[in-house]
Amino acid sequence: MTQALQPWWKTATGYQIYPRSFCDSNGDGIGDLQGIISKLDHLRDLGVGFVWLSPVYASPMRDNGYDISDYRDIAPEFGTLEDFDQLVAQAQDKGIRIVMDLVVNHCSSDHDWFLKACETRDCPEHAYFYWRDQSPETNGSPDDQRACFGGSAWTWVEAVGRYYYGHFGPGQPDLNWHNPALRHEVFDMMNWWLDKGIGGFRIDVIELIGKDLDTRIYAEGPDMHRFIQDMHQACFAGRDIMTVGESWSAKPDTALLYCGDSRHEVDMVFNFNHIDAAWDQDKGRFGPNLFDLPTHKRILASWQDALANDGWNSLYLSNHDLPRPVSHYGCEGPYRVRSAKMLAMTMHLMKGTPFIYQGEEIGMTNAHFTEIGQFRDIETLGQLKEQSARGVSQQEFIAGANTNGRDNGRTPVQWDGTKHAGFTTGQPWIDVNTNYVDINVEEDRSDPNGVFAFYQNLIALRGELDIITKGSFALIGGDDPNVFAYERALDDQRLLVFGNFTDKTVHFQMPETRTTQGKIVLSNLYRDALPSGDHVTLAPFEAFACLLE
Ligand code: ISL
Ligand code: CA
User: Fold this and answer.
1) Could you read off the pLDDT of 442-495 as tens digits, one per residue?
2) CATH number of 471-548
3) pLDDT digit string (tens) for 164-185?
4) Distance of CA 370 to CAs 289, 323, 397, 431, Å?
5) How close is the Cα of 322 to the center of ligand 1, in Å?
6) Could you give the residue numbers annotated as active site?
7) What is the pTM of this model?
8) 79 CA distance to ligand 1 centroid (A)?
9) Alpha helices (runs of H) in 95-174, residue ranges in sequence order
């Protein structure tokens, strides 16, 4: 049977760059576009097909670029539009597409639209935002909704005598998607970038557009899908691009509403079901890590099942908002390298498009800051204020922020063992992890058994075996507390994948006795065969994949 040709983004592996922390070319301590250009060979060698570039637009950087003050310009600390065009062209020469980050649930309070909107109610821009008048019941504020980064979601503007809504905080006023003129502006801007030849968009908190402030439904509001469909029609239709929307609310039973073929919305969603399942119900991300492997497997499998025949999965463990996978799910100590490979393999061999977050390809770890003054993130600093007021001690707070805070993923990429890890010749905007002398790109890449080499093999394997992109998925031994195992199947082929999530040797019970041995196609140890019999013994953090034909 001939299979239809797959779109490029189904066979490619993605790589996320957080520009501020990637590579600094001019010694001001902040990563930039020329820094990225200087490292394109690193990405080409790795084998990735596209880069998701976190925001590089003009911004006051209160939320490091997720607060945009001009959608058609580049922040001066990152470079210029010429640098951007150069990046797109040079990346393309190396077979890499550049996917932009689209942050249009809100803009920055420094955006011209908002500045005008705050001067008078009688300008078109005023209606680009959500305004409410005072309410006597809640101390003036329209309601008691809190902003994600602390404080009230409503902020008073004297000149217009009204409150505006900022879901994340006062520096990030929400754009009024119900206003057709605003939608038109946004779509126009998106087409402007797409016409430059970018590979598509990662769409920030897409679940929040279409909110209904009256009924206080913020995520997946009544108009969200209509707006995404409008966006598709105005910008995506007929273009060879990929789109992925960030949605903390998407669940297996709503996933196809975003990415089902007939919906004409986005190609994939980034869901967080496997991420926030490990967060404490009351304490949220700053509470203890409640990771439980059977729960994790069940969630991942439920997404595999939901999108088995329609839609498409994104596969990831980390991004710029999340801790480092080896610290969170693996081991920072003696099994760091081995656990980094195990995590990569069990994630990338499911069905979907895998995303690598910068530094993951060398097994970078969490930050381990010791002082409050080392934290930079607006969410962490907002939490600090709120938690201190509740009596949480500084020490306890630092422990929480070091475990799951957003700065963990934002310490600079460790390129080599020289000062500041070769990230900058100046003073880095956020401290480099002190372990850079041992953990860095130069060191890891010089080792044929390093994490980087393993990712290279993993990505290459994806190109060689159709079963990885096309095969069906079934969990094996879902209740086993130690091992993540699954089977992929395509025609007469089967691919078995095993990963031990513990630092102990474990025995994994197979559901059926095997006689065929198959061929080991990837292993993070020196395994050369799948043992026959009814169980598999795995060394600490061991992972391997076996092809049966
Ligand atoms: O992880 C989160 C929940 O506690 C939040 O940190 C995060 O704000 C949420 O994941 C949405 O993230 C996206 O939008 C934010 C931006 O700060 C994040 O960096 C971005 O990924 C607002 O634009
Ligand atoms: Ca710089």
Assistant:
1) 999 999 999 999 999 999 999 999 999 999 999 999 999 999 999 999 999 999
2) 2.60.40.1180
3) 999 999 999 999 999 999 999 9
4) 19, 16, 11, 11
5) 10
6) 204, 246
7) 0.97
8) 24
9) 112-117
